[in-house]
Amino acid sequence: MAWSLEFIEFIILAGLAIASAILTLEAREIIYGLFYFGIFTIAVGGLYILLNAGYLAMFQMAIYAGAIVVLVFFAIMLVRRKEGVPLCSSPSIKAKIGGAILSILLIILMLYFVLQYPWVQAVTLPVVNPGDIFYILMSNQLLSFELIAVLSTATIIGGVALVRNDIEIEESEEGH
Amino acid sequence: MDIPLEYFITLATILFGVGVYGVLTRRSIIRILMSVEIMMNAANVNLIAFSIYSSPFNLNGQVLALFSIAIAAAEVAIGLAILILVYRNHSTVDVSELKSLNG
User: Are B81 and A161 in contact (CB under 8 A)?
Assistant: First the structure.
């Protein structure tokens, strides 16, 4: 295959995604791991742009690189640790090697079966307006869209109800 | 686009394997949550690649990926709420020390 510009972009973005995903797990401080996680989500968003899904890339960067990273950042700040004592014991070398061997075996097994199928080699990408996805959301998929909205509301209420710290069941004393 | 679909599937598989490695070896709840997010991102890459390569003019596959991202955000919000609750009750986020539900 010729080294087209798209192929070079794919190589760069894929390398960035894999490297930052590994660094997310291997960074010594968890806050640096979160920083690498942000880079990982942005690289995946770049892959979406490469795949002609620009609206989804915008959504990915707004939700993952924006909301989720900030949410995890606040959670890390709320979970305070004592001076000099690590919050969590790091895994032993034995556990790391065992996990690495298991996951590499899993990757090889999945790729062995997946790559036997003759997949599509190339596709002509149409020029689509990224905003067209709105028309689908508002027509065909309206019910699913509403369900997602209800789910998000329930999540917000559930999250707030879980972490509030003044849980007292007040019983009415007037007896009715 | 002249990149074969195999390349995207391979990338998604490798990312999924990295996520599995994180879930298997890490002990902090926050890192396990981030590993799960890496796995969900791998699934999303697969969804969008299949959508684009099977029917480039049809945006329904992208809508499915959009819902997947929204559900991932909801999952992280609830997961972090549970994390803060666990830390408040047990003063640790180490999953190997949370034994109160062990049989």
Answer: no
Write out chain B residues lying below 8 Å of A162, CB-based.
Answer: 78, 81-82, 84-85
Check: CB of residue B22 under 8 Å from CB of residue B34: yes
Q: How does pLDDT run across A11-46, given as a tens digit for each residue?
A: 999 999 999 999 999 888 888 999 999 999 999 999
Q: Is residue A35 exposed (0-12), middle (13-18) or buried (19+ Cβ within 10 Å)? A: middle
Give the span between the Cα atoms of A40 and B38, in whole angstroms: 8
- Report CA torsion sign: A8, A119, A45, B84: negative
CA distance A158 to chain B (A): 7
Query: Could you identify the residue written with the tokens 């689908």?
Result: A136
One-letter amino acid of A100: A
Q: Which of B51, B53, B78 sits opposite A158 (nearest CB)?
A: B78
pTM for the model stands at: 0.88
User: Which residues in chain B are contacts of A165 at CB distance < 8 A?
Assistant: 88
CB contact under 8 A, B74 and A152: yes
Q: How far apart are CA A31 and CA A16, in angstroms?
A: 19
Please name the residue of chain B whose CA is at the shortest distance from the CA of residue A57: B66
- Tell me if chain A has a CB within 8 Å of the CB of B90: no
